[in-house]
């Protein structure tokens, strides 16, 4: 699975339709302070289902819509489309190319699409669940997050490393298996009691 492109229109500083294509290798985005570099990663997080306006540096979600400048009127709609090459079916869908679109209108209406078919936000969240690309994952690290990781307690830092290494999933599975085992031991005890009574 590979990020192929992102198309941004009316999102934050991107009033005009802007398409960024990610070729093989590493892509660097450079620009002066305030030119919109962070807005690109926020557009990626938003289209993949981000629900917190605060984490997108806004007060409420419509703040992500282009708010206008001295020379340009505000827009009524933000739209972001992201395209993944999914030839390896890393994303659990039959599509070999996955196109996800999210739109927000100033009146609060939203539109979500997977491969140009209307869907729910939940469907987009489900698409990225357990892929390491979701909202809470560490595939996108903001400047503030780096600082908070450096300043966090060693135990918290350890859980971050565990999550990145994929250990957390096994820890949760282990806990689930232990509680199932305890439940089964309880049933066994009851069966043994019944056998004793029948004898
Ligand atoms: P730095 O290098 O300082 O981190 P950056 O290149 O990452 O900067 P961003 O933080 O992505 O820049 O962009 C900030 C710019 O986006 C500001 O100029 C801000 O006015 C503009 N901006 C944010 N929200 C909106 C909006 N809703 N409408 C129009 N412009 C917006």
TrEMBL record:
Location in the cell: Cytoplasm
Source taxon at top rank: Bacteria
Binding site for ATP: 32-39
Entry note about domains: Contains large globular domains required for ATP hydrolysis at each terminus and a third globular domain forming a flexible hinge near the middle of the molecule. These domains are separated by coiled-coil structures.
Protein purpose: Required for chromosome condensation and partitioning.
Subunit structure: Homodimer.
Family the UniProt entry places it in: Belongs to the SMC family.
Name of this chain's protein: Chromosome partition protein Smc
Residue span relative to the full protein: 1 to 199 of 1181
């Amino acid at each position: 699975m590979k990020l192929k492109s992102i198309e941004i229109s009316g999102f934050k500083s991107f009033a005009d339709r802007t398409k960024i294509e990610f070729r093989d290798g590493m892509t660097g985005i450079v620009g002066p302070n305030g030119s919109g570099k962070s807005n690109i990663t926020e557009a990626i997080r938003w289209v993949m289902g981000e629900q917190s306006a605060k984490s997108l540096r806004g007060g409420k979600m419509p703040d992500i819509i282009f708010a206008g400048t001295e020379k340009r009127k505000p827009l009524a709609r933000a739209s972001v489309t992201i395209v993944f090459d999914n030839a390896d079916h890393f994303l659990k869908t039959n599509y070999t190319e996955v196109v996800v679109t999210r739109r927000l209108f100033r009146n609060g209406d939203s539109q979500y699409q997977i491969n140009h078919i209307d869907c729910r936000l939940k469907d987009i969240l489900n698409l990225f669940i357990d892929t390491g690309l979701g909202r809470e994952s560490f595939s996108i690290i903001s400047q503030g997050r780096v600082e908070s990781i450096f300043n966090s307690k060693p135990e918290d830092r350890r859980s971050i490393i565990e999550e990145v290494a994929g250990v957390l999933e096994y820890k949760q599975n282990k806990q689930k298996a232990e509680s199932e085992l305890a439940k089964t031991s309880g049933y066994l005890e009851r069966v043994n009691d019944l056998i004793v009574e029948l004898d």
